[in-house]
Design goal:
The protein is mainly beta and about 425 residues long. It has four helices and 33 strands. β19 (about 210-215) and β20 form a beta hairpin.
């Protein structure tokens, strides 16, 4: 017999066997148990015990007071791991667990670390992997999280890179899942027969597929669920629309130029004065011989005057609102302003053209102190085209000078060179 000092400073007798046991416990030795029953004793202090039986295993925890009396400490800790197919049932001797349960079970690949409490009446569960099962692996493929570079079964863990290599030599499909706190969030599945790789993302419920992409033979990508996004922009075109691009390599900028916001310019030469309250007829104005001539429509300063044009938009148009910018000039050399208004109406096949225009939208601009300057307004707010536009409609537009607008202060004629019309496409062709 030898003596050691306990916490009170009093000598306590300890045998040589107990001393060896304490030394072993300090090293955190892992112990493998293959039987169907086991009793946790003082010898298991700080150990990790692995159970690997295919049948149920009964584990009994020695009475806490007995452990404390033998070790002279209430700080007893042990980790229990189950790598066998049989359920491990852990039961204290008259004590309970900190949540009041009389026993705990460990299914295959589950583990928990327990510790005696200071009151010496309950086992505290200080760490548990109840939600971290390794699906589809047998005992030879189980990897501990504290493993160094390890090859086990079909899995290689390389901490240097770091990486995990899954070498599945089976048949059929191979699936690897990512589980977050017990909830399936993503999976990678490879089908050996079709040589397809599926990438699946699940919603927070662990079952609803949020997005699904398959990589097929010859480098094809199939988006089964979700939306194609290029350079941060959702592509709303159908598969049939995009199929025309199959033989062409396009950048994201080129693809976005096909769908989305588009522009057409309507020159003054493509307009005509309205029959009632019309502007002056198209006039060619020479700046200087040999330099650009101006083809303009002159709008008077004393009353609203109008011009008309029409556009048959492509089927690619989304039949939504449009905006415009006016390009104009003047003989004025001051900084007074002009107000330009635009309104439209859509007419379908076999419908009457005798319909009212929609609500006009006005945009204003000021001269810049010089005659014959090119003047461009800002882009207008959205214009709603009357008549409920549909694919194939003819859209009639009326542009006018709104002399009643407070910003229209120029006393000279305003000379319209043309307008830039902005609209939006939602398909890539007119098929």
């Amino acid at each position: 017999m030898s003596k050691i000092l306990d916490r009170t400073g009093l000598g306590a007798a300890i045998s040589a066997d107990q001393n060896d046991s304490n030394l072993d416990s300090l090293s955190g030795i892992n112990e493998s148990q293959t039987g169907t029953s086991y009793t946790v004793t003082i010898d298991d202090q700080n150990r990790t015990i692995e159970f690997s039986n295919a049948s149920p295993v009964a584990v009994t925890l020695t009475l806490i007071s007995t452990i404390v009396a033998a070790l002279h400490t209430s700080d007893f800790k042990v980790t229990l791991k189950n790598i066998g197919a049989g359920t491990v049932t852990v039961t204290p001797t008259t004590d309970t667990f900190d949540d009041g349960d009389a026993s705990k079970t460990l299914e295959q690949y589950e583990h928990m670390t327990i510790q005696t409490d200071s009151a010496q009446t309950a086992w505290n569960i200080i760490e548990s992997s109840n939600a971290s099962k390794v699906d589809g692996l047998d005992a030879s493929q189980f990897l501990r999280s504290d493993a160094s570079d390890t090859t086990s079964g079909d899995i290689t863990v390389d901490k240097t890179t770091p990486r995990i290599i899954l070498d599945d030599a089976g048949t059929g499909s191979a699936s690897y899942r990512v589980v977050d706190n017990g909830t399936l969030r993503s999976a990678v599945t490879w089908d050996r027969t079709s040589d397809e790789l599926w990438l699946i993302q699940y919603d927070t419920d662990g079952s609803t597929i949020r997005s699904q992409i398959s990589l097929t033979e010859l480098g094809k990508v199939d988006i089964t669920t979700g939306t194609l996004q290029i350079a941060g922009t959702d592509m709303t075109s159908s598969a049939a629309d995009l199929s025309i691009l199959a033989s062409t390599t396009l950048t994201s900028a080129q693809l976005n130029s096909i769908v989305g916001k588009q522009t057409i310019f309507v020159p003054a030469g493509g307009m005509h004065p309205t029959y009632s309250n019309g502007c002056a007829s198209l006039t060619t104005v020479e700046t200087t011989a040999g330099r650009p001539d101006m083809q303009v429509l002159d709008f008077d300063a004393t009353s609203d005057e109008h011009a008309q044009f029409q556009v048959a938009f492509p089927k690619q148009w989304n039949e939504g609102t449009v905006t415009f910018q006016a390009f104009w000039t003047t003989t004025n050399t001051g900084t007074t302003g002009v107000a330009w208004g635009l309104q439209g109406v859509a007419v379908s096949d076999n419908d009457t053209i005798d319909v009212a225009y929609g609500t006009a939208v006005v945009v204003t601009d000021n001269n810049q102190s010089a005659a014959e300057d090119m003047l461009v307004t800002s882009e207008s707010s959205a214009i709603t085209i009357a008549g409920t536009p549909a694919a194939g409609d003819m859209c009639f537009f009326r542009i006018f000078r709104d002399v009643s607008d407070a910003a229209d202060t120029m006393t000279e004629d305003a000379r319209l060179i043309g307008i830039k019309l902005h609209f939006t496409n939602d398909t890539v062709n007119d098929a």
